[in-house]
Structures are given as structure tokens and as C-alpha cells.
């Protein structure tokens, strides 16, 4: 006898990635995504399918698994704003321009906010100057996934997002890349994000596309709920989340545990997004392998070593 619809488990392939959702996960889906009930929900990378989404007249989709590609349509006369180094391909009717915000009086303040937040003062503008619809393909400038964050959906209305420097890749709609000052001496010195943290703000419906490496998980912290995290694994969190620090323990733990003297604590309410393989961690793994191979006299190239770490 076949299973009833009630008993049927939800298929992962039938669900969009978390950032494309407009409705909460059902109890059955939470059980499937989070069997250990940690409330850290797995980000399921989308496949290269025809599934697409629309934002402000632009259609977009994310293809691939670990090193993803973001493709967007660009109506005639419209512009896509991206970060330096993310361009991959575009329609022949598209033109590329750069805007140095530091060189204009009316954008000088914006430039300093971008620089203090960890981004370049230069913005890349991909402009459709033709009379027909164009397209662009963007990709992170290191092995990473593309995470679409929609204001008003994945970031609650009226809230901003604090992200790790370099996480921003592109945007659709009204998104402002700036910085947030952390006035706590303890978290400035010990939490790992410094005193100037990158802040993304935007109107409801706008989307900021972030890049992050490895497996991506997110957690919606309740009021007063606290989680201890590795700062290097953070992608971002809502500005309603309070950041603190926690001493890691004994002298031996601090010196030989690999986590330093302090860990970062995050207290809700708000969402937290994390990655398993940040660019810094990936870079450190490659450099360590290169050093070991050089000592051993092996002639492997950096590409061979990266292939060993990431897989073929």
C-alpha cells in the first residue's frame, strides 16, 4: 500500500533554498533539515534549474553547488551594482563603468563608510544601454556560495544586517553598504570584527547578494537566547542581535585549543548566518599545505593543493 500524503516526507529537491522562501518551514521540513533540533537550519544550495525569482523587474537565479553563479536579467536602461571582481559574463548590449565614490564630493561620505566596513570605495556599474533586455553573470571572487538576503523577509522590516567585511557581492533595489561603530572596548578588541563593522541596510523587497564558503547554516535566535560561535565562521546577523565575548577557559585551552582566548557570543532576538569555510580559513589551509609540501620537496602547484582540499 502506498504512503499517504500525510506520511510522505518533504523532498529536499522540491524546496527552494532558504533565502528564496516567503513562508516558514513546516514542522516536517524542520525535522528533515534539523534532525538534531539545534535550530541551525541547513542552507540547501540550489541546482542549475529553470527556477527563477523576480525583484524590481529583474529576474535572477543562482546556479551550481559550491562555486555558484548568479545570473540576472537587466531591462533596457537599468543598472546592476556589483563589487569589484565579481563580473563573469554579460549581454553584448551591456556596458561596464566604475564609480569611485571617494572622488566625488557628494559620495565621499559613502566611500568612507564602505572602506571602514571592509569594502572597496569603487563600485562596478553594469549598465544596459541597448533597447532590449540584457543579462549579466556574477560570481564570488573566491570559492563560495551566493546567499540572497531579502530585506523585509530574511531581515525584518526596520532592521539592518551586520556582515563580515568582504561578504557583500551585489544588490538589487535600494541597498546601502556602510559601517556600524562598535563602542564596546571588549568586543572591539576581542570579538574579531573590530570597531567598524560592515552594515547593510535596504528598503523592503531589496536584495543583497552575499558570498560565503563551505556549508551555510542559519539560526533564528529568540529573545534572550544566546549562542557561542567562532567569529571567523560568521557571515552576518541582524543588528537586533547583541554581540559579546566569552573567555575560553584555562591557559592551556587558550594557547593550544586553536580558538584563542575569547569566543564570540550572540544573543537574540534575530537571525544569524554562518559558514563552515571562510576565505581566511581556506587560505590558511592552502598556505599550510604549501609550506608542508615545500618542506617535503614536493613540486605540487597551488592549483593541485586547492584541488586536494576542495575536491575535483
Written description of the protein model:
The chain is α+β, with helices and mostly antiparallel strands and about 300 residues long. The protein has one domain: Mitochondrial biogenesis AIM24 (Double-stranded beta-helix, 4-Layer Sandwich). About 20% of the residues lie in helices and about 35% in strands. The chain is built from 6 helices and 21 strands. The chain has helices spanning about 25-35, 110-115, 185-190, 250-255, 280-295, 300-310, and strands spanning about 40, 55, 60-65, 70-75, 80, 85-90, 95-100, 120-130, 135-140, 145-150, 160-165, 170, 175-180, 195-200, 205-210, 215-220, 225-230, 235-240, 240-245, 260-265, 270-275. β2 and β3 (about 60-65) form a beta hairpin.
Q: Residue-averaged pLDDT, rounded?
A: 78
Number of domains: 1
Shape: globular
Low-confidence sequence ranges: 1-23, 45-50
What oligomeric state do these chains adopt?
Answer: single chain
Order of helices and strands: HEEEEEEEHEEEEEEHEEEEEEHEEHH
**Annotation field: number of helices:** 6
Structural class: alpha+beta
* Spatial arrangement of strands, main beta sheet: 1-16-21-18-11-14-13
Cα radius of gyration in angstroms: 21 Å
